[in-house]
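Reviewers of the previous submission asked for a worked example of the structure-prediction workflow described in the proposal, so we include one complete record here. The input consisted solely of the amino acid sequence. No template or homolog information was supplied to the procedure at any stage.
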Amino acid sequence: MSRAMLDAGAVVGFFSPGCEPCRAALPGFLAHAGALRGGRDRALAVVAGAEESDPMVLALAEVTRVVVEDHEGPVASAFGVRAFPTFCLVGPEASIAAARFDLSALTAPITV
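From that input alone, the workflow returned the following structure tokens.
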């Protein structure tokens, strides 16, 4: 995983399988990621504390690239994630244009 893999406008979702708000947010993220122009290249899901065979990982892998890591893994640390779920919109030069706990707040018009 590198910065070059995240173009401006890409969405990154951070989830944890044992997190009830994460499970509640999953269908919305799946729908959003599945509808993005450019498909799985425009979305990334990071799942903390999961196995590759976890149902959450498998569902996400159908529509986006998935990284499985520890709760304080390198991707979550790079984004400064401290709570799940967290959703980020990538800005120019792989900057973070916005970060929200609610995907619908993130997908509202945001200047990138």
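The first helix runs from residue 20 to 35. We consider this example representative of the routine output the project will generate in years two and three.
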